Amino acid sequence: MNRLAEATSPYLLQHADNPVDWWPWCDEAFAEAKRRDVPVLVSVGYSACHWCHVMAHESFADETVGRLVNEGFVAVKVDREERPDVDAVYMTATQAMTGQGGWPMTVFTTPDGTPFFCGTYFPRPNFLRLLESVGTAWREQRDAVLRQGAAVVEAIGGAQAVGGPTTPLTADLLDTAAAQLAEEYDATNGGFGGAPKFPPHMNLLFLLRHHRRTGSRQSLEIARHTCEAMARGGLHDQLAGGFARYSVDGHWTVPHFEKMLYDNALLLRAYTQLWRLTDDPLAARVARDVARFLADELHRPGEGFASALDADTDGVEGLTYVWTPAQLVEVLGEDDGRFAADLFGVTPSGTYENGTSVLRLARDVDDADPAVHARWQDVARRLLAARDTRPQPARDDKVVAAWNGLAITAIAEFVRLVETRGTGGDNLLEGVSIVADGAMRDAAEHLAGVHLVDGRLRRVSRDGVVGQPAGVLEDYGCVAEAFCAMHQLTGEGRWLALAGQVLDTALDRFAAPGGGFYDTADDAEQLVTRPADPTDNATPSGRSAIIAALVDYAALTGSTRHREAAEAALATVAPLVGRHARFTGYAAAVGEALLSGPYEIAVVTDDPAGDPLVAAAYRHAPPGAVLVAGRPDQPGVPLLADRPMVDGHPTAYVCRGFVCQRPVTTVDDLVRQLT
Question: Does the pLDDT at position 159 exceed 70?
Fold first, then answer.
């Protein structure tokens, strides 16, 4: 009996017709394993994962595999995006046992959940042998299996421990982190490390803030070059605007084609900030196009943002996206086809498989002659229209609270920049800003109205129905940061009140001794260990996310309690920042904000969107500054309380660490206070 048909996870639903008698993650599954005295097979993956699909097709859809699993095990299928706590515990075990990790993740546990054998993808013949070997070991070498499990639990308990050394995150540590990133920087191709190469969005945010605080030209150049290299490569969808999960090579040419909400949200923040700091036209264009991708491809009207687009189409990775020279000519005609092949690097031999190529910008066109620029845009529109007639990758429609929080924050920053900078005659930019703003507000309302249940966050929803998995720390941090961003953009007090509610729950339920945080609440389901990972990986760690939200909330309200909690938590991560900069990017970015103040800027005005003081404040705001604009003494908006206009003129109030400068009414005076 397969029990996945009623699941809310698209990934679990993909396995609902397997001959494997799957259980969802639940106490009943482990009770059944104990009753039958058999091990548990825990299989963890996610819907956009290419090799998860391969193993599903090769093994889990196979009758022989299904029979062996059903006879010797209780099989539990887990969506890692729905249950990141389960994934974190068993990923730590997998890495401890094998030295590496990834998905699909294949873990065998005792009936109490203790892992004793871990791995990732297994081809069908290997998986069949593995099932037989594990079953034999369980029956004939039980004591050795249990000793192995106990050793793994001890190892992962140490890896997830809290209460280690702490130290304030100083300017010297942040400078050391920036220097370490410079040493690991790929000066030829941009980014860090070799293949596979992941977009280092959180490190980019840190480097941009570090440049703004210190004036470091090196930090700015690393961020600028990496942003340009990614944007020109196949990692970036040159037609629809989104970014793929990673590049399989070291030069951003061929992506792993899945597109994740969290990557695109974090990259939107990086390109928006690069545009804000430098006026770079490429950064402006890419920020616009990523915002368009989020609004057009991932937004679900009346809900939030979907989690991902699949890597595969009809079982073939990249089928939707790749081109041959002949296909370009077929769509565009001979002249424009040759132009597009040269522009996008489409060659007869191909850059991908079977003579196909991934589109990349092989020519510099952002600053090209207007006629060339117009031709490029026309060709791209026609190719996208043709591509839209092809079979399309599946979309994982579940709404993840944390990732929607990241998207809301990113779009709020993008919309604010467009409002304060203007569109420069770019009608598409204006249209994207309007549509993205609507999608952002939709998502924020969905989180507030659906994911907040009895004062607690739920992790996922789908089709407007909230799921059962409880929110983890990253959900609380990212959602609270998003509510703070909504408060700043709209000037509405209710968003700040919601942020405070979410943060107070996190402080009550997730706090650990010594200032740190656990990733799960104190009343959450007990796993074999309670995860507490301080490192930033594909997304900000829960700890980094909650620190960022605490800093914002403290700056917006003047709450010393939240400020002190942020500083204490950041001190638990600081020892890692100087040693592992690539895995503490979000924490370092928050550290830059705290080191700079952060600045608290209030602009009292009747025109929050169009006042030159607001534009100047946003343009020149130091790292992590908070900014609220609106009429004085609006309810629920502490930064505007008791701050009148001076002589009837719009007035800016600049404070830093709760210490304020004199109010100013001119742009020049405001800029002097901020620089």
Answer: no
